[in-house]
Write a structure and sequence with these properties.
Largest sheet: 10 strands, parallel
Number of domains: 1
Oligomer: single chain
Radius of gyration: 20 Å
Strand order of the largest sheet: 1-2-4-6-7-8-9-10-11-13
CATH class: Alpha Beta
Structural class: mainly beta
Number of helices: 2
CATH topology: Leucine-rich repeat, LRR (right-handed beta-alpha superhelix)
Number of strands: 14
Order of helices and strands: EEEEEEEHEEEHEEEE
Helix content: under 10%
Shape: elongated
CATH superfamily: Ribonuclease Inhibitor
CATH architecture: Alpha-Beta Horseshoe
Length: 252
């Protein structure tokens, strides 16, 4: 549905027993403050349109029953969304440190799925200290500011994490001990790594799938060694314009 003037009608706030609301691709640019009345919502999808900003009043903090929350990619204003009281959340999409405080994550101990966009003013160390409280986290998407080249320690050893997606500029991949010990799936996008990541990735013994896409690696030669990737089932290498040679040793 396309709403007149891009405004969701304030009468939506009258649906006080609503459990599920999806505005996916609805083209809404303004959400009404009456949404604070939807206190029984379990599922809320505010990904109204990719690339289009949206005004979100600070009403989400009152939806204490929420289990699934998809935040919009862009907001109109600089108002911070307060999410710290959403302690029942299990899935949180498009959380941005530009629009919300990273410390809000500290109380979301039931989170199993988290997608985070890290702005320049929030360091990875600050984010990491909050994520360490999320003992049930199984899937983590991390998108770093494209203007920031990663330097320093990128430690992601969250004990229960099974799937990791990284969009972060870095010249080389972290050492294997900096990754979750039981990681099964990893995706690397647009990293610009100059060193071959395979010698590290092949040592992550539980990996079942690896995706390297959109210039994740900008070198010319990639080598998969004998005995590496003992459980790998799927490998995707896509959009690597500099890659000229790929060696797969027998037994890899």
């Amino acid at each position: 549905v396309k709403f007149k003037g891009g405004k969701l009608p304030s009468s939506i706030g009258g649906l006080i027993h609503l459990r599920f609301l999806s505005l996916d691709d609805a083209g809404v640019s303004h959400l009404p403050s009456s949404m604070r009345n939807l206190k029984l919502l379990l599922y809320l999808n505010l990904s109204v349109a990719i690339g289009e900003p949206v005004h979100v009043p600070n009403v989400l903090k009152e939806m204490l029953e929420l289990r699934y929350l998809f935040l919009p990619w862009f907001k109109h204003d600089k108002t911070k969304l307060e999410l710290g009281d959403l302690v029942n959340l299990e899935h949180l999409w498009s959380f941005s440190t530009q629009h919300s405080s990273v410390t809000d994550l500290l109380r979301m101990t039931k989170l199993r799925y988290l997608s985070v966009s890290l702005s320049e003013r929030c360091t990875f160390e600050t984010l990491s200290s909050s994520l360490r409280q999320l003992r049930n986290l199984e899937t983590l998407y991390l998108d770093f500011s494209p203007k920031t080249n990663y330097v320093g320690e990128l430690v992601l050893d969250f004990i229960h994490l099974k799937e990791l997606v990284l969009t972060v500029r870095m010249s080389k991949i972290p050492d294997q001990h900096q990754f979750p010990p039981h990681l099964e799936h990893i995706s690397l996008f647009n990293c610009g790594m100059e060193e071959d990541p395979m010698p590290i990735l092949e040592k992550l013994l539980h990996l079942k799938s690896v995706k390297l896409t959109f210039e994740a690696f900008v070198g010319r030669k990639m080598v998969c060694s004998k005995g590496g990737f003992p459980q790998l089932r799927a490998l995707k290498i896509y959009k690597h314009s500099e890659l000229e040679e790929w060696i797969v040793e027998e037994g890899s």
